[in-house]
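Two folds, back to back.
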Amino acid sequence: MKRANFAFAALVPMAALLAGCGQAASQTKTTTSTKSTATSGGGVTGTKNSASAPSTAQFPAVAHAADTKVAPVIGIGHQPAPSTLQIRNLVTGTGATATASSTVTVNYTGTSYTSGKIFDSSWSRGTPATFPLNGVIPGFKDAIVGMKVGGRREVVIPPSLGYGSQGSPPAIAPNETLVFVIDLLKVH
């Protein structure tokens, strides 16, 4: 199934994350994903692919990282981009936990790892987004599963868990590594 292009209209705010939902199940089975574990103080979480926590050098800087009432500003990533999903808690939530079958309400900003350019943001639309986790790209789903309401996470999604060699023109280039800062507002 072909992935849909991004839609920036207010009527279709989640098209960017819902694109590729037909491939999500097959991609998840054939690619490595990350299970996160919260650390005290909102520290870095580990990945299945590494024995130790990812280096903070793999994460672009985030202005307003701990203030979930303000849109985050994501910097440019450091090369080389990580080849596995990287997750770090900027704020550790204390509410309900998202599962793979949850429908969630989030605020998020998505940028290119290499340029820092925003390609999608619920903050810029002025309204949070609500969607089922089984309908988004694998890296976005894996980033939210295990997250608690009230939390804010920064995630770096490699192309294999995002839009791959197809990209999602014109917003996302082929083989683009993505960065999201996600605030989990509600688990339905």
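---
second:
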Amino acid sequence: MTVEITSTEELRELLGEPTAHAANKERVRLHDLDRQWLAASPFCLVATAGADGSCDVSPKGDPPGFALVLDDTTIALPERPGNRRADGYRNILENPHVGLLFMIPGRSDTLRINGRARLVRDAPWFEELTVKGHRPVLAVLVEIEQIFYHCPKAFLRSQLWKPESWQPEVLPSRARLVKELEAPEKELAELERHYGPDYLRKLYA
């Protein structure tokens, strides 16, 4: 039998109350240490939700420091070539609230930023977002409302950064996944060529 939790009271009864440290660690402005973290981070997860409540989480990655700090309460994330679905971008147009999780390889803590986002198609600082000749056609401008560091327990439990725990070969290759689930009409050899060395050369094309 499934027993559902339906109230905050039930939730707190099960989990208990957060410590004073955890409850009060939120800030609304970037500290110099936050700026250092953003300068070192090459990867971020961006969570959005549409007007109807449908959710999306999109990975964003670039050389370390790709999140441009404009001031103590504003950062910008560049667009890079992708699949053009624009799920998260369309959500932002309907609902500006976003959640960002910035990671640094090897670090088990993460920097969380929540705020309100806008899509910008040009600004004087776009030149600073250019990488390998790619000037983004848009950027996500985030006005920070909440910022704090998240504890490392999830990363430690999962052993995410321990190479001895990695088993990438337990699943079919990217080409085989696409062949099975997305493009059965294409030849596997064609897909393997697409996701081979040429794929890396087209990251900013």
